[in-house]
Design brief:
The structure is a single chain. Helix 1 runs antiparallel to helix 14 and helix 12 runs antiparallel to helix 14. This protein has three domains: about 280 residues, 3-Layer(aba) Sandwich (Aminopeptidase), CATH 3.40.630; about 120 residues, Alpha-Beta Plaits (2-Layer Sandwich); about 40 residues, no CATH class. It is globular and about 85 Å long. The model has no long low-confidence stretch (mean pLDDT about 95). It contains 14 helices and 19 strands. With about 450 residues, the protein is of the alpha/beta class.
Length: about 450
Amino acid sequence: MSEELILNRIESNREEYIEFFRELIKTKSYNPPGNEKNVALKIEEFLKKSNIKCDIFPFGDNRANLIAYLNDQFEGKNLLYNGHMDVVPPGNVDDWKYPPLSATIKRKKFIYGRGTADMKGGVAAMAIALKILKDLEIELSGNLIFNAVADEETGGKFGTGWCLENVLESIKCDFAIVGETSNYKPLSHAIVLGEKGRVQLKIITKGISGHASVPFLGKNAIYMMSDLMQNLDKLDDLMPKIKPPISLEKLKTLLRASFPNQESFERVYKEQPLLANVSKALTQFTKIVTMIKAGIKENVIPDHCEAIMDFRLLPGQTKEMVLDALRQLITDIGYEVKDEPTGHPDEYFFYLEVEGAGKPSYWSDWENSEDLKIFYDIVEKCYNKKPFYFLLPASADVSYLRNTNYCKNSIIFGPGVGTTAHSVDEYVEIEDFINAIKVYTLYAYNFLK
């Protein structure tokens, strides 16, 4: 009976919930610089109408984290919903079909705007789930904790990381959901069990300058970088051999769950390069050069070149492993690696600088979880399609929950198509958003009743 009450409440108030979601999209929280407090205040205003306790923790220049609770009791089971309020900048707004902060509704089916998928849709749906359970006054034996955080798009140290160290550390957590987008069209939604780690490195080559008319008198820093790029695949052999948490064959088996039969799966897997390439990326260490700059003038041998490289790690691989392997590779191709970026004008060498790092994580015991099986069934019921278990090729705040041992039983699930995140004309389907509200509310009710 309570499930029917919940679903009826969602359908009867859907326009109110859509407008709340649109209000969050319209609220600027580009990171950098952040301004997440703008969103936190909107959420607080929405929840306080239902007498929900909200704590806002401000920091920096107009930045903040928010934590809200269904009740004041934490002795029973505790369920944590986590989502980030910051979004990436829109880039060139002239490239957008609809202004990035307009929250434009198209054909009564889509909502467009920066952060719709990543991840104000998930944040709004989680806040609404908390409000519904409070408004219906359903008797529950546990507590739902909603944590809306800052800083995810720049590493999460001042968001989820700070909340775990300063507020949530005294509250045990039995299950956690991070509301990042998890729709893999043309498939159904994924229930994400782990994610890869990330290391972002700045690589500097220090060469020897000179006049371009006598090129052999100098040491071209661009050519030095090119030597590394041409030998980059050798890095795979220098990294410690680690098995992926889920093999490629098992990943394909998990993917098949959302298909009516084997034949249809094989056809789509073959015809959709995105699906095959994501699966491949999830089972191996990856590296790619994403930025490069060098040179001061067209007739000067460049003595300085900088490249940014992005490395994605499997659980078990570390930042230190990447650095050790890269130093070995640079030595093998005939160059020195120095600990300082500057040196004598006649010296040439490499310098490595870590610009960012996030650890991989994985819920290794997920197959034995009855709570997860219940969640799977609720997703299938709300979306009328079987979800599938999967991994995330990128990184997310859920790694803080697992790697600190705060809550190993953590998953990612949220509205929106993953490929639209950070893209021009980012959008969410309205029914996907409404269904996410149903999933979050029904699961919290079943978990805490």
